Amino acid sequence: MCLQHCLCTNSTVGANPTCTTFRIPDPNGSPFRRYDPKSLTSADEQFLHTHTEFVSVPRKGPAFNHGSCWALCLPLPRPAENITLRRVEYTISYATMHDMDSAVVQTEVVIKPWPGRTSYYFVDRESGQGRLPYMDFDGGALCFSATLAVKPGGVGETRGRYVDHRVLEPDIHIDAGTDATIYVVFSVEENPTAGTQRELIVRALAIWQKEEVENHVCEAAKAAAEKEADEKEKERLRLEEERQERLDAKAWRDGETAARIARENPELQAGIEREQSSHAEES
């Protein structure tokens, strides 16, 4: 799966974004299984939508009381039934004023296979969790998107803004018995001052494929396999019937040939009959 990602870290209007194309690895070994949507048709597209957002008005002081290295974890609601995550779309806008230098930011979309919180929360990453770039090594967690960038600093009243928008199509099936939680995680490592003002907006949307769609696809695949097996069996029987017809035709021709030879050569036929009778007596 390839993704095209456009990232703009410059607050100047008309600035050229940088585009990067990369591949997402299959989540082999995880508690989630891949689901191939190629067998779907447009008539089968039945979706559920969930969304979440975090909006913070400009405020002063250390970032949300978590110092200079912090992360916002924003959970995306998901349906309870067996479901396939087909699409994730998010937009992030983070702006600062009156800070000392540029900042490093990191955005991840992570699925964790255990019950999670239903509302957003902040994590202080200054104590024991390392500086950016940060990797989440929690057991069983699947990160299918990660972006690392540098946000320009906001000098004085000038805003240094970071904007990121991405559309992902992971196509990951999540069973109903899996207590999986999807998070959009936005991490920041910055150099604030007492007068630093911050404004953070994070919005995310998830599109889920309903269970009956997958059931329909599975049933259609099963019916197609049964039809293919039935056609192969019919073809096998047809070929067997043709082979038997050829054998019967050959036997008939051989019989006709033997009868004709007997009529044309009665002495030869009498000798053949005597030889057959002799073999029968010996046996």
Describe the protein's architecture and organization.
This protein has 283 residues and is an alpha+beta fold. The chain is built from two helices and 13 strands. α1 (211-264) packs across α2. 22% of the residues are buried. Residues 1-35 have low confidence and may be disordered.
Could you write a compact summary of the structure shown?
Residues 224-283 are annotated as: Disordered. With 283 residues, this protein is α+β, with helices and mostly antiparallel strands. The chain has helices spanning 211-264, 266-282, and strands at 2-8, 18-23, 33-34, 47-60, 69-76, 83-97, 103-112, 121-124, 142-151, 160-168, 172-174, 181-189, 197-209.
Number of helices in the DSSP assignment: 2
- Beta content comes to 35-45%
- List unreliable stretches of 5+ residues: 1-35
- Shape assignment: rod-shaped
The main pleated sheet reads as: 8 strands, antiparallel
User: How far apart are the first and last residues' alpha carbons, in Å?
Assistant: 76 Å
Number of strands: 13
Give helix and strand order, one letter per element, not per position.
EEEEEEEEEEEEEHH
Helix fraction, binned, reads 25-40%
Round the mean pLDDT to the nearest integer and report it: 74
Radius of gyration: 36 Å
Structural class: alpha+beta
Total domain count: 2
Region (Disordered): 224-283
